[in-house]
Every structure is written in structure tokens, then in C-alpha cells.
Amino acid sequence: MKKSFSVIFCSLFLILSLNSWAEFSNQLLPDLGNLAKLVAEADKSKIEKEVYDVNGRFSSNLPAPDSAGGRTAEQLAQMLSGGSEPLRQRLIAAFLGNRDRFLKNLTDSNYAVNDMGVAYAASFILLWELASNRELSRLASEQAASFLIHAFSKMNGEYAKIGLDERAMAYDWLTTIPVVMTSLVMAFEKDGRQREVVMLREKSASLFLNAFKVPHNMLSISESGVISMDVDKVVAYQQRYGIGGIR
Question: Which letter, b or e, does each residue of 142-155 get, where b requires 16 or more Cβ atoms within 10 Å of its Cβ?
């Protein structure tokens, strides 16, 4: 990562400003049901047959428009720039550059872009890795992603009720926020700023919970990419704290 990019995030003020980031998930991510139950009920024997589109790409076949692409980056830049227009423009360029590279990497790895299940799965894995301070192998990531895409494909009934604008904003959030958080962690780790790294990982845990209604530390992903969680404990947690997605 270029030094100029790291310098953008050198102020502790920027990290403290992340306190309102969790609001993005509450405002922009639609409630599509209980992820814990979707994952638990997914039929593993059908994954290889049901995670592709007509072009042979990994897909949930839940199309997501990219018509809001860049709006999340602009909102973040506005919040983090402290009123400085030059910094706002630099932040937008950095965020959008990372998002574009992320989407290209997905395409190069045979994932369908403009697919909500793919966006959910990729966001899930990135935020879980950040919150858990663990990096999955490529094989584990691919296996976990396939499982999640398959689980998310079962949201089709709830998904059909969501308007195009809401879909577009959710897709933009899912393909922007986790990538920005990953870039921030990488920048601060490179500069040896562990205090900020810890704060960012804690913020990633909050974002994960707000987005997926499951605490990141109530599930595990094995070295082979198998996702495990105690659904009863997750639902009990959701009931205790009034978190959406209990049904």
C-alpha cells in the first residue's frame, strides 16, 4: 500500500469517527431473515449444484443493481474528512479504488458481481476475518463462500419484497465497508499503530453483528472452510438483546 494512502488515515480522530459506522448497516441492510437458521438449514449436498448462474459463475441468483455504486464511499468520505474538501476527494478516490479492485478480484475468481448473495458472503468473510484477527486460506475462503452463497440463495422470498433502491444501497454497503475496513487495518499495521488496529477490529466486530445479526465469536470457520455455530445459542442471544432476524 502506498505511503500516501496510509497518511490519509494517520489521525486518531478518523478512528473515533467510526463510532457512527454501525449505523450504515442498520439503515442500508435489509432484514432477510435469520442467517444462523439459513446456514444451519442449508443442504450441503446441494451446494455444488446450486451455487452457479447460467454462465457458470458462483452466484446466489439474487441480482443486485450497482446503481448506488460510490454513495457509501461518498458518505464515509464526508464523515471522515472533517470539512476538508481535498481530503474528502482523496478519501473517495481511495475508497472507490479499493472497491473496484475488490470487484475485479471477485470477477477474476469466477464470482458473479451484481449478485447479492456473493456480496453478502464476501462481506461476511472479510468482516469475520478482521474481527477474529484471522486470515483464512484461499481454499477455506472459497469453501465458506460457496456455503454462504448457497444459504443466502434461500432468501429469495424475502428478497423479492425489497425495492431496487434498497437493493442497490445494500449492495454498495456490502462491497464498500468491509474493503475500506480491511484497507485501514493494513495501513495501520504497516505503520505499527496497534492501538488503531485493535479499535478497527473491534469496530469490525460491531459491523459484523449489525449486518448479520450474529456475534462473530459465536461461530467458527475451520481450516477447510466449514462454518459452525450453535443456532439455539445465537437465537437466545438475539432474543436477549432484541436483535433482528430472530424468526
Answer: bbbbbbbbbbbbbb
What lies within 8 Å, CB to CB, of 162 at 6+ separation is 30, 170
DSSP 219: E
Summarize pLDDT for 209-245 with one digit per residue, the tens. Answer: 888 888 999 999 999 999 999 888 988 998 898 887 6
153-206 pLDDT, tens digit per residue, is 888 888 898 999 999 999 999 999 999 899 888 888 888 888 889 988 998 998
Distances (CA, A) of 115 to 34, 120, 125: 19, 9, 16
Q: Which of 118, 158, 135, 131 is nearest to 31 (CA)?
A: 158
Contact 64, 152 (CB under 8 A): no
Q: In 3D, which of 9, 2, 21 has the Cα closest to residue 188?
A: 9
Nearest of 90, 64, 78, 101 to residue 24 by alpha carbon = 78
pTM as predicted:
0.90
Measured at the CA of 163, the angle between CA 204 and CA 152, to 5 degrees, comes to: 50
**Contact between residue 212 and residue 31 where contact means Cβ atoms under 8 Å apart:** no
Cα distance between residue 168 and residue 223, in whole Å: 33
